[in-house]
Amino acid sequence: MRLLLVEDDERIARDVAAALTAAGYVVERAADGEDAWFLGDTEDFDLVVLDLGLPVLDGLSVLKRWRGAGRTMPVLVLTARGAWAERVEGIDAGADDYLAKPFRMEELVARVRALIRRSVGVATPAIAAGHLTLDTRQMRVSREGVPLALSPLEYRLTAYLMHHKGRVVPPTELLEHLYGDDDARDVNALEAVVARLRRKLGPDAIETRRGFGYLVADAPA
């Protein structure tokens, strides 16, 4: 899962990025509203964490531009404590949730997990697909109840496919959501990761639809 963090306070941005990375997400950062608007308008993210008090272009204006352009990714707004009018205005502008500063990192990560699940129609922290179960809180994948040892990249790939279970995901989409901008995005490397995963998840866990992409079915074949 690839997230955009928009925060101009370097200390807060560094701490939030570290917490989200530890939770299994790929995090891109922007420090002002203009860069944030451009990134959110031209690239696909699974969620945006957006501070409203930004330089150059304020966060509320960024959000309104995204929604006006038809961008539908979930947005978690960060606001100053007690700024209830700002929170109301943010939600009216299209924010999906808000969190007041200062906040606990555990709560922020939990809200991010919930928003991403909700955006794909999943209500619970555990996602089941066939013989597999993804526990988003524990960052653990199990097959028929047995936990599997996955690398961070293998976990991210499995989690993305399971969040989108029943849908064929093109390789280009997987590459965009699994890697940061500074990482190489190579289709051959992706095929190698899928091959390793099949040895761990089971040979039929991830289907290949030639010319289209990869699929984790909702029910076992």
Automatic annotation (TrEMBL):
User: Which CDD domains does the protein's record reference?
Assistant: REC_OmpR_EcPhoP-like, trans_reg_C
Q: Which Pfam families match?
A: Response_reg, Trans_reg_C
UniProt KW keywords: DNA-binding, Phosphoprotein, Transcription, Transcription regulation, Two-component regulatory system
The terms under GO molecular function for this entry are: phosphorelay response regulator activity; transcription cis-regulatory region binding
Residue positions, PTM 4-aspartylphosphate: D51
Keyword DNA-binding recorded? yes
Domain Response regulatory as annotated: residue spans = 2-116
InterPro entries xrefs: CheY-like_superfamily (IPR011006), OmpR/PhoB-type_DNA-bd (IPR001867), Sig_transdc_resp-reg_C-effctor (IPR016032), Sig_transdc_resp-reg_receiver (IPR001789), WalR-like (IPR039420), WH-like_DNA-bd_sf (IPR036388)
Q: Where is the signal peptide?
A: none
Q: Name one GO biological process term.
A: regulation of DNA-templated transcription
**Record has Transcription as a keyword:** yes
Q: At which residues is the DNA-binding region annotated?
A: 124-218
Which Gene Ontology cellular component terms are annotated?
cytosol; protein-DNA complex
| Highest taxon, organism lineage | Bacteria
Q: Where is the OmpR/PhoB-type domain?
A: 124-218
What is this protein's record name?
DNA-binding response regulator, OmpR family, contains REC and winged-helix (WHTH) domain
